[in-house]
């Protein structure tokens, strides 16, 4: 009976070691793949930079300042259409919350300032 337990324990330990070795090999493979990808990245960006330079030179001149301004304002208009605006009730509620928090902190600051001022006069009068 004791030999069966010892045999089971030995086989479990061997199985765990095999699993650990497999995991270590997988980790090494992943690390090797990441290194390969890192080496590929700068080459691909250099190629992309060359392509964009060719395209920009093929386009020719930039549009004049007025065309750029019109394009800018069209973009602003498109983005403002996407904004979710508050309703009047939500705006009033949130404004009230902000005003209340500001009033509370103003009151707390006044109390602390008055207390510290009183302490300062006590110490300075002596």
Structure description:
By secondary structure, the protein is mostly helical. It has three helices and no strands. The longest helix has 58 residues.
Throw out a few tags for this protein.
flat, single chain, 126 residues, mainly alpha, 90% helix, 3 helices
Write the layout of secondary structure elements.
Blueprint: H1 2-59, H2 65-82, H3 88-125
Contiguous helical run count: 3
Mean pLDDT: 79
Helical percentage: over 70%
Q: Any idea what the radius of gyration is?
A: 36 Å
Q: Which of globular, elongated, flat, extended, rod-shaped describes the shape?
A: flat
Major sheet: size, sense and barrel closure? none
Summed up, what is this model?
Belongs to the SecE/SEC61-gamma family. The chain has 3 helices and no strands.
């Amino acid at each position: 009976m004791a030999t069966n337990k010892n045999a089971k324990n030995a086989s479990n330990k061997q199985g765990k070691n095999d699993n650990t070795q497999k995991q270590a090999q997988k980790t090494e493979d992943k690390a090797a793949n990441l290194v390969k990808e890192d080496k590929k990245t700068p080459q691909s960006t250099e190629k992309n930079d060359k392509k964009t330079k060719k395209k920009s030179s093929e386009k020719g001149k930039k549009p004049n300042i007025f065309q750029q301004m019109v394009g800018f304002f069209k973009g602003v208009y498109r983005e403002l259409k996407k904004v979710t605006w508050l309703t009047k009730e939500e705006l009033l509620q949130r404004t009230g919350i902000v005003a209340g928090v500001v009033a509370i902190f103003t009151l707390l600051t006044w109390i602390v300032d008055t207390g510290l001022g009183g302490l300062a006069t006590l110490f300075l009068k002596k």
